[in-house]
Design brief:
Layout lengths: L1 E3 L6 H14 L14 E7 L4 H13 L8 E7 L7 H10 L4 E4 L2 H10 L5 E3 L21 E5 L2 H15 L5 E6 L6 H14 L3 E6 L6 H10 L4 E4 L4 H5 L1 H12 L6
Parallel strand pairs: 1-6, 2-3, 2-4, 4-5, 5-6, 7-8, 7-9
Length: 257
């Protein structure tokens, strides 16, 4: 089953629980009888997130799994380079991991392309049905399960909250990562919602943290009065403090002409 995710910070514990279910049921049930079985958990990252990996390990430990004894975690990091994800996913498949954990749409797609048999547990996806990962939330129907943020459904709500908080708002900037497969659909729903509310949307593309400074300079130049994120993307979560700091700094200085 794919679960709706209300609080992004709780995903490590939920993912650990889902993996436990996989280990004791379904296709892994027979292997569970093997004495001394060490489960190999592949983790595919686009960008590093040490705090969530620590929480993930802690969640597994609380469920009774000891790294090096019951489980082995094979961590693969693309260092922000999207083109490396397919080869890293293929590597995990060659290593015959028992399950692959992915951090978002980009990594889930790479894992999906690499295997249709190894279970994949996604930490989050905007709309897993539309993205072709699962058949439905209640019955995924594929080798993929995990969490969904239903972020696209919330894009209009975010703009509505901005409109309510700042009734005279006219221009809203939206950050999106074009390398993320969710970027296009997410931006489309945000544009549709903005149009219905009479708001001018200012799309700003950000492919990595090295583009944050130029992105916020563009936001200031466009005289945007608020900022929303067009879709869930690892670079915005991993660098959330920096995004918030730049947004605060941009909002407190005169916009360039």
């Amino acid at each position: 089953m794919s679960y709706r995710l209300g609080n992004w910070c709780v995903w490590p514990a939920i993912i650990a629980t889902i993996i436990t279910v996989l280990f004791v049921a379904g296709r892994l049930a027979a292997e569970a009888q093997q004495a001394g079985k060490v489960y190999r958990i592949g983790v595919l990252h686009l960008t590093p997130d040490l705090s969530r990996m620590e929480a993930f390990r802690d969640g597994l430990n609380k469920l009774g799994y000891i790294e090096g004894q019951d489980i082995a975690i094979l961590d693969r990091l693309a260092e922000g380079k999207v083109h490396r994800l397919p080869e890293l996913a293929a590597e995990l498949v060659r290593l015959k991991v028992d399950v692959i954990v992915t951090g978002g749409t980009i990594t889930t797609y790479a894992a999906k392309q690499a295997t249709s048999t190894i279970p994949i547990v996604m930490a989050a996806d905007d709309s897993p049905v539309e993205d072709g990962f699962i058949v439905s939330l209640g019955r995924p129907g594929t080798n993929i399960t995990g969490l969904t943020t239903l972020s696209r459904e919330l894009n209009g709500k975010r703009l509505a909250l901005l409109k309510e908080a700042i009734p005279r708002i006219a221009r809203v900037a939206v950050l999106s990562n074009p390398a993320n497969r969710s970027s296009g659909p997410g931006l489309s729903t945000t544009k549709a919602a903005a149009q219905s509310m009479g708001l001018q949307l200012v799309p700003i593309e950000v492919r990595g943290p090295d583009e944050f400074e130029s992105a916020f300079a563009a936001i200031a130049k466009a005289r945007a009065q608020a900022l929303v994120l067009g879709h869930q993307d690892p670079i915005f979560h991993v660098h959330a403090q920096r995004v918030a700091s730049l947004a605060s700094r941009t909002g407190s200085r005169p916009s360039s002409t």
